[in-house]
Amino acid sequence: MARVVIIGAGFAGHTAALYLGSILGTQHDVTMINPSERFLYVPSLVWVGVGHMKPERTRFHLPPVYDRMHVHFLAGKAVEVHPDERYVVAEKNGDGAEKLVRIDYDHLIVATGPRLNFAATPGLGPESGHTHSICTQAHAMESRDAYLENVARMKKGEKRRLVIGTGHPGATCQGAAFEYITNIHKDLVRQGVRDRAELVWISNERAPGDFGVGGITARNRGRMLTSEAFISAVFREYGISWDVQKGVLEVDENAIHWEDYDGQYGETTYDFAMLIPQFTGMPLKYVGTNGNDVSPKVVNPAGFVTVDGIYGRPYETTAGDPESWPRVYQNPEYKSIFAAGIAFAPPGPISRPHVTPNGTSITASPPRTGMVSGIIGHVVAMNIIDLVQHGPMTHGERMTEMAAACIASMGDSLWDGSAATIMMYPVVPDHRRYPNEGGRDAFVTQMEMGLAGAWMKRMIHTTFRHKLQGRIGWGLIPE
Amino acid sequence: MMVNGAEDKLEFTDRDRFWMNNKLYQFLRFVVLNLKILKAVDHSKRS
Lengths: 479, 47
Known about the structure:
The structure holds 2 protein chains of 2 kinds. Chain A is α/β, with parallel strands linked by helices.
């Protein structure tokens, strides 16, 4: 009987659990370790953050799903992985005497998601800093409350400056921040106070619309358009001023301090700020047989699990070789370890990096959206099923081969809302296969904006919750 | 202005705004976008 352990019930880990449980669960041992008993549908936290969705609609209870899918569930936090002896040490939730448990495995999937590294930017974050976040449910609720306080002040006649974007020179998830600022715009219009709000976008992107993927060039009503032009037009349409090529270094109670591409330092004052932090890997200890630290064999310095990508090459080399990107997401040293979703180490940035004259790297890190994470979780699960059932792995998909649809909500109303629907293929440009400027399939890659996108975003919220709860037909819904 | 064959400046017109919120047109776009996403997913290599 094979033992498969998954650490993390986010998009990647939970998707893997559904496939592993449904195919292997009755004859083999599949165990999920996750600190929370609830799955959190993170993309909808944007709406929680503006008070348009109740938090309970973004989550569902995991144990009944895992019972149905023949997956054992341990509510707790993985703290150590012993890759030589193949076991995980987890700290169970609750106050019981036996807090630490050992779980042996034949195959391990590390799908922890990111550590929100607010500490990398002094003054950042809701816990010990001055800014807000929409990265967790608790943060999104706090952000909502602070935002609505600002709305109340605007209704009394005050003018407020709201700054949204990225809070570290190497941050990612610009898409989520974009959704937040555009939803705030729509809400302020609805609340009748838009004229009292100054909305400012600040990010580490090379240009608006970069989103950590180098921007896209896509068809839009018969013409080729850059995402820079598209997003800049959206910002103008919504009266949002933007400041890109900025690496935020520090935040105090009045201002956001940054360095720009030219190495100049400056500051942006704010009344309300939501800034996405740097992401690093979760701090799991990797312990060898002698109790020695074997982390260098498993993770990179940022804590992301190294897999079958090619690391350490200059940007131009990585960008020019699609095989730099991993295909099966397996750690080369410990083949029993896989990493899925944000937990795996990308071989480098997708967007062109920039180093300032002061030596600061202001480079958007590669995003891993829910769709991409789900696809990787699916690939990893199917390969483990291959290994358990008949030997060689037969599944693989690099991000240079992967299609992704991103639907960026820009107002959730089903009557007059909007969303930008962006399809890109592939996610990471492949200039060998598509020798155009963008490195993507110009026929498949496209972007548009309109009410249809708002409907799609809401539909996806519903259909994904259906899929992720393992309900009837779940396997027919693509990641 | 065209940069590498793509437009790098865009302004939304009243016509654009009309079509972005026209319910019938957007319903058709909703159907088409769903089909395109399914096709793109199918197009994407997954061995």
